[in-house]
Amino acid sequence: MAQFGDVSQKSALHPKPKGLTLQYGTAGFRTAADRLDHVMFRMGLLATLRSKQTKSTIGVMVTASHNPEEDNGVKLIDPMGEMVTPAWEGYATQLANADQDDLCAVLKGIVESEGVDMAQAASVIIGRDTRPSSENLSRAVLDGISCLEGHSHDFGLVTTPQLHYMVLCRNTGGCYGDATTQGYYEKLSKAFAELTKNAPKRTLDQKMLLVDGANGIGALKMKEMEAFLKPELQVEIFNDGSSGRLNYECGADYVKVQQKAPRGMQMSPGQRCCSFDGDADRIVYYYSDSNARFHLLDGDKIATLISTYLKELLTEAGLNLQVAVVQTAYANGSSTRYLEDVMKVTVCCTKTGVKHLHHEAQKFDVGVYFEANGHGTVLFSKKAEEQIRELAEESNASDEKKRAGKLLESTVNLINQATGDAISDMLLIEAMLAVRGMSVQDWASIYTDLPNRQLKVKVADRRVIETTDAERRAVTPAGLQDSIDALVKKYRQARAFVRPSGTEDVVRVYAEADTQESVDALAHQVSLAVY
Ligand code: NG1
Ligand code: ZN
After folding, report:
1. Overall CATH class of domain 2-157
2. Where is the Alpha-D-phosphohexomutase alpha/beta/alpha domain positioned along the sequence (predicted)?
């Protein structure tokens, strides 16, 4: 198999631990960092094949997001900045689990099935988070790329969404923006300035935002971007990685699941705060009131704010475009009710994992998608973008319509349509609050969350649980769903479901009900039913 050059020889330098089987899950491969060297090398090989096949630049991001610092992971980014397609996820799993001696045969199988032209040039760009293990692991990816003579560019330390953005820029001939971090900062800060021009009377206090960087890459990148945003946004960064551990008692996942402020954040009452996760693709907001009560504004609240803002602007602009919100089973019941009954927007529910939400959102003129944990973005169809840009340029439109058109145009420019992006989402939220003259308290009171609880349960084999109806019901093991239904019936406004995690070796339990006491009891009882 001469076409695979020195794959056999080079792969021996990245040996697979005996007996290790991994699966390309909702966010690629994720496990303890010391088990991943061979996977990285092999993902370098696979990304090179994918690049040859699509004749486009492919991205490889080394990160384990919100997982503990000692974990790591890798995911592949397809030409339009989206997650790699399911067929290639399957190849990724095959390749990661192949025995050393079978590696070339598996590669050959992929080349044949996908009709990859091995003579085609390949281009792969890579990035990594701040984990101590990420640098060596990203070198293993580069080894894989060079082994198949692919061209590579290492962006080094970048957020996951920045790498998605670079892939999209590179494959659209620069139309989306410049494929550099500088280009990213310039594009976003320009759109942000255009939007905040419409809110000239903001006080210094209103321009102030506290950011928890989860001791990760988001903190680093916010420091780089700070100067671009002044004076319209003054950020104070906590958990900037100078002392604490990545994601330890901080970051978006911690704040969302624990429903409390991160370690080290010095919040005064009413102060707007936000937390990024470890690779800065998720964001949640919060504040504490004068009674020291903590208020969380999660992905559902963000989706509501965005869809309300866009709907209003589209109406003012006189554009007849359909706005839909895509959620998962974890969306708070109050948010779904508010969106459907009050906002009258279409709401869809998909399986957990951004790729599912992204795919669904593509079906609408304007698809707002957010996981409750704060991962999400907005997708505009070609038709929607064209109508918005035309209106913004239209000289005969009324002042009101033109203003709405311009605001919509800058909003499109501010959003990272490749993927959920904490920095872009943060700027969008700050701009929307400014333009609409809303405080964080106004935003929080749009609707009241139903008390909810998430728990993790360790079981021998989490895969015995199979689900249906966008993961809201368990089909196996027999009897489990009946037990959950019986428990739910005991409480008011209650709902509960269980599903195997795609990123951790646990079963996740989610419950909501009318009071915190009830929901805690319900979640606990459901977790006992899982054993
Ligand atoms: P799993 O571990 O499959 O629940 C978690 C999140 C997902 C998604 C992925 C990828 C929850 C309940 N689950 O997946 O929404 O973000 O990680 O990071 O938040
Ligand atoms: Zn993340």
Report:
1. alpha beta
2. 52-87, 119-169
Closest ligand, as measured to the CA of 502: 1
Measure 239 CA to ligand 2 centroid, in angstroms.
Answer: 16
454 Cα nearest atom in ligand 1: 12
Measured by CA distance, the residue closest to atom 19 of ligand 1 is 373
461 is in an annotated binding site: no
Confirm or reject: Cβ of 353 under 6 Å from ligand 1: yes
Residue appearing with tokens 């290639």: 88
How is residue 218 written in tokens? 């988001």
Contact 49, 111 (CB under 8 A): yes
Q: What are phi and psi of 267, to 5 degrees?
A: -100, 135
Residues carrying CATH 3.40.120.10, the chain: 2-157, 182-296, 299-420
Beta strand 151-157 with 123-128 is: parallel
Superfamily holding 299-420:
Alpha-D-Glucose-1,6-Bisphosphate, subunit A, domain 3 (3.40.120.10)
Question: What number of CA atoms fall less than 13 Å from residue 526's CA on the CB side?
Answer: 34
Let me know: does 191 contact 413? Beta carbons within 8 Å.
Answer: yes
Look up the CATH architecture of domain 452-530: 2-Layer Sandwich (3.30)
Instruction: Record the tokens describing residue 64, joined without a space.
Output: 């384990």
Distance CA 366, CA 364 (A): 5
The segment(s) of the chain belonging to CATH 3.30.310.50 are 452-530
| 182-296: CATH, from 3.40.1390.30, 3.40.1360.10, 3.40.50.300, 3.40.120.10 | 3.40.120.10
Ligand 1 atom at minimum distance from 375 CA: 16
Longest dimension (CA), the chain: 71
Q: What was the ipTM of the complex prediction?
A: 0.98
Q: Is 27 in the pocket of ligand 1 (CB under 6 A)?
A: yes
pTM of the model: 0.96
